[in-house]
Amino acid sequence: TDPSFIIDLYTKWSTGTYEGTKITFIYDTMHHSTQRMAHAMAEGVRSEGVEVKMYFMHDDDKSDAVTDVLDSKAIFVGAPTMMNNPFPGIGDVMYYLNCLSFGNIETKKAVVFGSKGWAGGSARILAANLEGAGFEVVEQMELAVAGDLDGVHTCVTLGQPIVMLLVCTQI
Predict the structure, then answer these.
(1) For residue range 116-135, what is the model confidence (pLDDT) as tens digits?
(2) Beta strands 85-86 and 81-82: pairing type?
(3) Are 81 and 87 in contact (CB under 8 A)?
């Protein structure tokens, strides 16, 4: 067996050497509002010709999500607010990202988003956690829970300038 394949992967992951412009979305949802936001933002990103990977933490494995984060140009992380904090289902993957210390390599961009019933707070906490893990948070968004069509449209249009930021800065 030739170990060079896995050694090459670890070299890319540890130095921030990426090919392509993939963006990974990681989210959890309580009443599907954050899920609608994630899919709308992903639509905006895809409309710019960028590859998107989607992970719903209720169904998908955190190790698969983090593996895609390793060779992504940017990530979008979303969770609804529950008792002024991010929904617990996103916690494991946030801990995992923090353990990987992305600040030691090229800074990855991140967008945080979530839905709220009252005061919110999820996006602010997710942003602080990602910054602590070495990400540069370039946008935060929280929308009130409901089928807000204007909010969903805003999510689609948010994905587009983020892609332009990534392309223009050539990260």
Answers:
(1) 988 889 999 999 999 999 99
(2) antiparallel
(3) yes
